[in-house]
């Protein structure tokens, strides 16, 4: 699923890939997006043959950039949205998703959040980790540090997949 989304986004950019810093910008934008995040950014960078070191830094920065804003503003935004009948269902759905992961965080919430963000599985990542941390009322500094650590863990795993295994399969 992620590979298909990444390919679609790369195609959406069209000839921009050939522009100066085009590959870098595409990698950054994909890394910013929920669902795709760093995982998608590194897959795109690998598919675009972007320098691995450059891809690594850009993907981490792109993935971590929205996290402080999510941690700081999600609760007030959700409270505002709950007062709007047409938006309340969205908030309820997101909070239900976060609550479904609550059991994973009850003991050792820091390590649990690092692993939740860091192990690249569908539905996990920095955005969802921020959502869970906010809904559970985790300390924002502690949550940011755990999420950042998880992003670093995910980046190592995805670098191996994007530039190691996948490139060997695709080009051999």
Number of domains: 2
Main sheet record: none
Question: What level of helicity do the residues show?
Answer: over 70%
Average pLDDT taken over every residue: 87
Termini, distance in Å? Answer: 23 Å
The number of E-state strands comes to 0
Describe this protein's structure:
- The chain is an all-alpha fold.
- It has two domains: 2-63; 67-152, no CATH class.
- It is built from nine helices and no strands.
- Helix 6 (85-100) crosses helix 8.
- The longest helix is centred in the C-terminal third of the chain and has 32 residues, at 140-171.
List the topology elements.
Elements: H1 2-13, H2 22-32, H3 37-47, H4 52-64, H5 67-82, H6 85-100, H7 109-118, H8 126-135, H9 140-171
